[in-house]
Amino acid sequence: MTPMIRRCVRWGTLAVLGLGLACARTAGVPPSPPVRPSLVVFVVVDGLRYADVERWREHFGPGGFRRLLEGGAVFDAARYPYATTQTCVGHATLATGTLPERHGIIANTWYDREAGAKVSCVLDAESPSLDGSGGAGVSPKRLGMPTLGDALLGARPSSQVFSVALKDRAAVMMAGHRGTAFWWGKDGFTTSRHYAQALPEFVATWNAGRPQVAGTSWERSADPSLYAQLGPDDDVHELPPQGFGRVFPHPIPPGDGFLYTPSGADQLLDFGLAAVRAEHLGTRPGAVDLLAVGLSTVDMVNHAYGPDSHEALDTLLRVDRALAGFLSALDREVGAERVLVALSADHGMGTAPQPGGRLDGARVTQALEAALDAAYGEETWLQAFTTPYLYLRPEALAARGVRREEALAVGAKAIAALPGVAQVLTDTEAQAHDSRGLTAAVRASYFAPRAGDLTVLPVSGVLLAPDADCAGWHGAPYEYDQHVPLMVAGPGLKPARHARPVSPADVAPTLAAWLQVPLPEATGTPLPEATPPAR
């Protein structure tokens, strides 16, 4: 072997040995973990049906709903398992990972037996609003479980939790007890003394310079042929706010009228970005923050015009564009690799009832009163009716010496005989472990200290409305109200569609896994398809 060959062999051997040593040193070392998000954004589109996302997805732009649908973990069978599919209930469920039977938010409004009055889910006289609008105060004191935001602030004091929405109940439930909530007040965004003694400077600044849309018109934003698929624009079942009319274009009046147009979503998301910038959400070294966004516009338009109206479709298309702009701004402000986005809805929406599809609450109360009068003598038997609960007057039962259980059975039988009623349950039946009919859904909704003596459920497609008259409504235990979109997109998540049944109560535990905080009270379970990738 020549000297040159010997040198080549020697260097080759050393090179191989060096490579082997390097491999040996790295073989037992795990690869770097995926980047953890510094900002978790939880978007709740109030009143968005799963069916509408699927129906119109090809008409969405690439940066809004489709960004999540095509780039995230999408759950096609997310359904609320309870009966009272209302706004406050849904936001409380999404935020806590528990159901109404545990978190105690049974409706937007219920009858408080101790107060002797109907109360809002966020009513707190000791926490007045900071905008001087007067009226009742607002806080999360009626929410009986900690939220995801509460868990984050308990485990990571350097974190920040902000919740923004047009509705106070949406903002409050998502902020929880320890976060900070902002909602639309008298003339801009506000909060209450539960959260702050004065409005932060960025809120006052945004309110002073907010876009003014009064005097402009809401026009269709897509080709007229798309809307024509829904039938005529002028539908007699639509019940728009005063001054709007039933057909496009809709002149936007002064005041809060813009809330019933897509401009409400535009302004909310712009305000959310102002909070990100002012509070440096997701950009403070080492901090992990949570921003909840309650997009109430779809719900408000659906109530006014119905979810199958031209207005509802145009709103969805415009919300998609507004969401795309919002997510793009977060990419610039925080970094796409540092933001995790979850999107769902608090409930769906029933189609505007046709003739015979509306059950007036007065018919229900009259049937109850008439049946009890006939059985026990004339009295005022009913204390209150807040969908879906009827509350009897204990004084009336005592005065006539009537056993409560007997009176409930008599009343339930009379109401169940009404056209449009699917099932009536007494409080005992509502808490029974019985899967027949709609009992299981009612049980998941039932929190005994607040729920009524009787629970009345309408037939699918029938609107039971004791308190309001709207073109579209929700609150029933049926597909159109229970089935909602659910998608999560973030660093390292594999885009995929998942058909297995899941619950919106699973979202908070899933996000808790990303935030690395405990959520022991949650009854939902983390979605493995949407939790952080393994190291």
Number of strands: 21
Major sheet, described briefly? Answer: 9 strands, mixed
Name of the CATH architecture of the largest domain: 3-Layer(aba) Sandwich
Counted by DSSP, the helix tally is 19
> Over the alpha carbons, how many angstroms does the gyration radius reach?
27 Å
For the residues shown, what is the average pLDDT? 92
Count of spatially separate domains:
2
Report the CATH topology name of the largest domain: Alkaline Phosphatase, subunit A
CATH H level of the largest domain: which superfamily? Alkaline Phosphatase, subunit A
Q: Approximately how much helix is present in the residues?
A: 25-40%
Q: List segments where confidence is low: pLDDT < 50 over at least 5 consecutive residues.
A: 1-32
Category by helix and strand content = alpha/beta
Strand content: 15-25%
Q: Tell me, what is the CATH class of the largest domain?
A: Alpha Beta
Taken from the alpha-carbon principal axes, the silhouette is: globular
The N- and C-terminal alpha carbons lie at a distance of 49 Å
Strand line-up in the sheet with most strands = 8-7-6-11-1-12-20-2-21
Protein name: Alkaline phosphatase family protein
GO molecular function, one term: alkaline phosphatase activity
Active site: 87
Pfam families: Phosphodiest
